[in-house]
């Protein structure tokens, strides 16, 4: 086997009201370096011990079982820049990495649509899985037999992430949400989402930022879990950000800033947020890749 590397980007889901549907691939990566070996070995990020039941390797085994193949022995070394449980899609990126590992090792020749369907089945929603596979900004949903997904190109914005030290499991942040929404409320909430998409499409970034901050599906119920939610939003706005939203289920928040202003806004915001990693992130446009 010729050694190869699988790289999968992080992603930020929801973008305000695009709950469980919109996602943006970001330039932080998980890498799997795969090489020949007599014995199966999976080395997790930062570990020198092989882990037989590692999350990613388990995903690969599930894919292999689904397609009726046995994966050959190899050694896999994981490295990752994606912090866990911060709302940057680490679980979806790990799932996509596991699917791609099985795809390569088992020579399965999976299409992107098959990867998206399997990943969504495992994650429960396609908003992080789709950008991790396709790159860029994706809008997706689940039908019974299909995961329709559209990609929006040319997002001319700088992006700043405020990543706190604390973790917040997506499962916990989902438990805070109502089970149902009353009809008029749901209609308004989905209208916000429609405008977010239309504003992005027409590059009306001021309107995009305004509607981004008017989510009704999840942020009103989750903000109690997020330290400095209002402060981050207000201060970023004062520094010229178009808008700031929870990244995925949080606790990371993400600001969308006029192109070229990101570095200056990042530096000012970092002064105010002790204990946070404040990062200017690139949009990943490739999605999962092999090198
Ligand atoms: N690279 C990885 N290796 C092992 N487990 C992972 C990896 N990435 C994610 N996970 C699992 O997924 C969990 C985080 O998923 P989640 O709560 O959905 O947060 P997020 O996807 O926002 O980072 C981790 O606590 C861990 O159990
Ligand atoms: N739509 C999901 C997205 C979760 O993203 P994550 O990066 O926090 O795992 C939700 O809002 O629950």
UniProtKB/TrEMBL annotation:
Binding residues for ATP: 83-93
EC number, UniProt record: 2.7.1.39
Domain GHMP kinase N-terminal: from-to ranges: 55-136
Single GO molecular function: homoserine kinase activity
Family: Belongs to the GHMP kinase family. Homoserine kinase subfamily.
Pfam family, one: GHMP_kinases_C
Entry-linked InterPro entries: GHMP_kinase_C_dom, GHMP_kinase_C_sf, GHMP_kinase_N_dom, GHMP_knse_ATP-bd_CS, Homoserine_kinase, Ribosomal_Su5_D2-typ_SF, Ribsml_uS5_D2-typ_fold_subgr
Subcellular localization: Cytoplasm
Role: Catalyzes the ATP-dependent phosphorylation of L-homoserine to L-homoserine phosphate.
Keywords: Amino-acid biosynthesis, ATP-binding, Cytoplasm, Kinase, Nucleotide-binding, Threonine biosynthesis, Transferase
Pathway the protein takes part in: Amino-acid biosynthesis; L-threonine biosynthesis; L-threonine from L-aspartate: step 4/5
Source organism per UniProt: Oceanobacillus locisalsi
Catalysed conversion reaction: L-homoserine + ATP = O-phospho-L-homoserine + ADP + H(+)
The protein's name in its UniProt record: Homoserine kinase
Gene3D superfamilies xref list: 3.30.230.10, GHMP kinase, C-terminal domain
Domain GHMP kinase C-terminal, chain residue ranges per copy: 197-273
Transmembrane intervals: none
